[in-house]
Every structure is written in structure tokens, then in C-alpha cells.
Design brief:
alpha/beta, Protein-Tyrosine Phosphatase, Chain A, six-stranded mixed sheet
Length: 205
């Protein structure tokens, strides 16, 4: 297995037993839950309480990071045209505090970031959190639902391949192309606030 500093996973509708098996295969010892509200109506075993209890049975600790690293910001200033603005969120002191806490945990445990979406490129755990970690030089592995682990740099290659060539005409460097691709994807999949609800939103992302 390549050397990864942290992992990510999306629980989606997968069986909890399969999730635990994939975490064990990656030798994960701690889950960092980055859902804004760590609850699932359709899959209640992924709500914080039952999930923490189930993971503890298998020697995996559970911590909630939704208050600092969640994908649904509480403040209107962190939305652009009603869409959560990941770039603005990444600049917030609260987000930086959450990243620092996550990095401190990673010095003691083998950490996997968890959210709900199956595909990393559909989720803020990749487009916001893993991006911030990769920018700090960490090697992130996304645990996919077939059990394989995709290095974040390969996920970024898929991101670049999604399209937007016309918009890239005026982008000269690889870093700028990647930043533009992150921006496009975030606008496509990030949380959209309901009218009047940007100041008090809640949900899984």
C-alpha cells in the first residue's frame, strides 16, 4: 500500500460491516466525521451515537469535526450566490482550527475523514478538506467503494478531466487550471442554501 498520511471515505448506503472492513484494511484507527450534522435519517447506524459505539467495538475511535470542517457554513458571508463558497470557508479561522486539530490527531492515530457522499469529487471532504491537507504537503488516500484507495493526486487528475476546456483558455499554469477545476466542481456540488437559510443551515455535508 502507498504511504498515506490520512484517508477519506463516504458512507453512502454501504453496509456498516463493509465500512469497518475497509477501514481495517487501511489500518485506520480513528474516524474524523466532517458532516455538518452527523446524522442519517435513512441509515441511522451512521448517526453519530450508533456509529461511535459500533466503531468502538472494532477499536476505531470517533470524533466529530462538523462544527469546523463541515460543508454547510452557518454564515451568509460564506455563500456565493447561495452556494457554499469553499475557498472562503478555507480562509476562516474556525476551519484552520479544525485542520490543526485534525493534524494533531493524525500524529497519534491513523485517521480517516468521513462524510456521506460516495464519490470524492461530489463531496467537500475532497474538494475542501483534502485539498487543504494536500496543500500542506500531506498524502491523502480516498477509500472507494470497491475497496481500492485512490491517491488524491489521481483524484485531481480526474477533476481536471471533467471538462471546462473553454474556461481554461485564459488559464496559463497547471496550478491555475487545477484551482479553476476545483472552483467549477464546488459550484456544481456544494450545498445550496434555502432562501433566508444561510445563517442557520444544517445537514450532512
Amino acid at each position: 500500500m502507498p504511504s498515506f498520511d490520512l484517508f477519506s471515505i463516504g458512507h453512502s448506503n454501504i453496509a456498516i460491516e463493509r465500512i469497518v472492513a475497509m477501514l481495517h484494511a487501511a489500518e485506520v484507527t480513528a474516524i474524523a466525521d466532517v458532516r455538518s450534522t452527523p446524522a442519517s435519517r435513512f441509515f441511522p447506524w451512521f448517526s453519530a451515537g450508533p456509529l461511535a459505539a459500533r466503531l468502538a467495538q472494532d477499536g476505531i475511535s470517533y470524533q466529530s469535526y462538523g462544527d469546523t470542517l463541515g460543508g454547510r457554513p452557518r454564515y451568509a458571508k460564506l455563500y456565493s450566490e447561495g452556494i457554499a463558497d469553499y475557498e472562503a470557508m478555507a480562509r476562516q479561522p474556525e476551519f484552520q482550527t479544525g485542520i490543526a486539530r485534525l493534524l494533531a490527531t493524525a500524529t497519534q492515530c491513523r485517521v480517516c475523514i468521513m462524510c456521506a457522499e460516495r464519490e470524492p469529487l461530489d463531496c467537500h471532504r475532497c474538494l475542501l478538506v483534502a485539498r487543504a491537507l494536500a496543500d500542506r504537503g500531506l498524502n491523502i488516500g480516498h477509500i472507494l467503494h470497491d475497496g481500492s484507495i485512490e491517491p488524491h493526486r489521481n483524484t485531481e487528475r480526474r477533476l481536471l478531466a471533467l471538462g471546462g476546456a473553454a474556461e481554461d483558455l485564459f488559464v496559463t499554469g497547471q496550478n491555475e487550471r487545477l484551482a479553476a477545476a476545483y472552483r467549477r466542481r464546488a459550484r456544481a456540488v456544494a450545498y445550496r442554501a434555502k432562501a433566508g437559510g444561510a445563517n442557520s443551515v444544517a445537514g450532512n455535508r
